[in-house]
Design brief:
By secondary structure, the chain is of the alpha/beta class. 34% of the residues lie in helices and 16% in strands. The strands form four sheets. It has a four-stranded mixed β-sheet with strand order 4-3-1-5, with helices on one face. A four-stranded parallel β-sheet has the order 11-10-12-13, covered by helices on one side. A three-stranded parallel β-sheet has the order 7-8-9. It is globular. The protein starts with a helix and ends with a helix.
Length: 305
């Protein structure tokens, strides 16, 4: 079963990628006969038809209810499953990941800022059909309070940058976004709060979102949401923020007892945090290529997943 799903996904992805890379002047693509799982909770559609024109899905439905354009290239998906591509929403990408991710149905990825200087060339190579890999979104590097093993003498697009002030934080954000990043990532929660606020504001001025690992003590999840963070990677800080008795746990990042914190969840605290995440994220509309993440934040807050 899994092998059929994976093969169907890869075939659909490659077909759509070829159409996208070469332009809308190509004939339409029709994927016929597979069982369609739409990803939105709808009932599976047996003997389905998916029509792709250019780089967009133009029509979806049951055979006989969808018109296949004359001259369309047809892929026979009978006996297979057709479903939306999956997201790898937290990847530390390496050069050999591309084909493996595609083989497992992943068609888009968000990196954690570990690709450095090669991040943008890799992303653009994928978008132009030069590299076989999921569509990539990149933060290039991480902005944090410590060098995390670096020396400090690396180039401006090395995997970690440690600003020295709020103004320096703004400058680092400009450097990263001007280099082509899709968003900026703040790696930990230990810088002064005003530095995060300045950095997020600068990203917003440039029409890009900011991701914040709000482990504290400088910034916590509710504060990150209130200043407009678009994502809380690793659900950073959430389990401690919603624990009934947070004093029993080590403060800051401590991955060893994440499940213990969620097991101690205070439903009222979780509901309040969900409300803050939803209300603040809805006020922001990005020009970025990055996907909206309100649903992701809400799900992480609510489920502890």
């Amino acid at each position: 079963m899994k092998r059929l799903v994976f093969r169907a996904l890869l075939g659909v992805l490659l077909a759509v990628s070829i159409v996208s890379a070469q332009g809308p002047q190509l004939a339409a693509l029709a994927i016929e006969g597979g069982t369609l799982i739409d990803g939105n909770g709808g009932a599976p559609v047996a003997d389905s038809v998916v029509v792709v024109q250019g780089n967009k899905i133009a029509a979806v439905g049951k055979r006989g209810q969808v018109t296949v354009p004359a001259g369309a290239r047809v892929i026979n998906a009978a006996g297979k499953f057709v479903l939306p591509g999956l997201w790898e929403s937290q990847t530390a990408y390496a050069w050999y990941f591309g084909e493996a991710l595609l083989n497992h149905g992943i068609t888009s990825s968000i990196d954690v800022g570990t690709e450095a200087e090669v991040a943008v060339p890799h992303r653009d190579a994928v978008l132009h059909g030069k590299d076989l890999a999921p569509r990539a979104y990149t933060g290039i590097l991480r902005i944090g309070s410590t060098l995390n093993g670096a020396t400090g003498y690396e180039g401006p697009l090395h995997t970690i940058r440690v600003p020295k002030s709020a103004d320096d934080t703004r400058e680092v954000v400009r450097t990263v976004l001007n280099a082509g990043a899709d968003y900026v990532i703040f790696y930990d929660g230990a810088m002064p709060f005003e530095w995060y606020k300045a950095g997020v504001e600068e990203a917003h001025k440039m029409g890009k979102p900011a991701f914040v690992r709000a482990y504290g003590p400088g910034i916590l999840p509710a504060q990150a949401a209130e200043i407009g963070a678009a994502q809380l990677p690793h659900s950073a800080g959430i389990p401690l923020a919603i624990a009934s008795n947070p004093s029993q746990f080590r403060q800051g990042r401590d991955d060893r007892n994440e499940l213990d914190k969620y097991a101690d969840m205070d439903d009222a605290k979780a509901a309040d945090l969900v409300k803050i995440c939803r209300s603040t994220t809805r006020r922001k509309r990005w020009k970025s290529r990055s996907p909206p993440t309100t649903t992701w934040i809400r799900a992480r807050c609510a489920s502890g997943g």
